[in-house]
């Protein structure tokens, strides 16, 4: 059996592949420390939320590969993946994480461009005045 738990998180077009290890250490994203990849206090609060809710901040660490979307979409994908991985570790965490909405995959994505709409997804062609 592998010594890690694998989970996947998604948001917009971002996909985060999580390997969760049951030992303390630094969490790495795309070969960078998580604090360097997602700088700032707001981002730190977001990516630490699943660990804090489950009270396992210093008991686990993860290596994460994330691709697609922008930084915010990637951050949400990482949080979603970490939450899914923690539920695989201990099913009792599921109710705690579900209350905070961390296990719900956000379905909002970019609206596709439609033909005959003047280049944008919601723009309509100008109607003649007379």
Automatic annotation (TrEMBL):
The keyword Acetylation is annotated on this UniProt entry: no
InterPro entries according to UniProt: Ribosomal_Su5_D2-typ_SF (IPR020568), Ribosomal_uS9 (IPR000754), Ribsml_uS5_D2-typ_fold_subgr (IPR014721)
Statement: the UniProt record of this protein carries the keyword Cytoplasm: no
Positions of the UniProt region annotated as Disordered: 104-130
GO cellular component, one term: cytosolic small ribosomal subunit
Biased composition (Basic residues): 120-130
Swiss-Prot/TrEMBL keywords: Ribonucleoprotein, Ribosomal protein
GO BP term (any one): translation
UniProt GO MF annotations: RNA binding; structural constituent of ribosome
Protein family (similarity comment): Belongs to the universal ribosomal protein uS9 family.
Name of the protein in its database record: Small ribosomal subunit protein uS9
């Amino acid at each position: 059996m592998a010594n890690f738990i694998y989970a996947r998180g998604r948001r917009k077009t971002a996909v985060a592949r999580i390997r969760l290890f049951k030992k303390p250490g630094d969490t790495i994203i795309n070969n960078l420390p998580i604090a360097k990849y997602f700088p700032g206090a707001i981002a730190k609060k977001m990516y630490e939320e699943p660990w804090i809710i489950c009270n396992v901040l210093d008991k686990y660490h993860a290596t994460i590969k994330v691709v697609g979307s922008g930084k915010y979409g990637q951050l949400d994908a990482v949080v979603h993946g970490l939450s899914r991985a923690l539920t695989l570790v201990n099913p009792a965490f599921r109710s705690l994480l579900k209350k905070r909405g961390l296990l719900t995959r956000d379905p909002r994505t970019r609206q596709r461009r439609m033909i005959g709409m003047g280049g944008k997804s919601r723009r309509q062609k100008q109607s003649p005045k007379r």
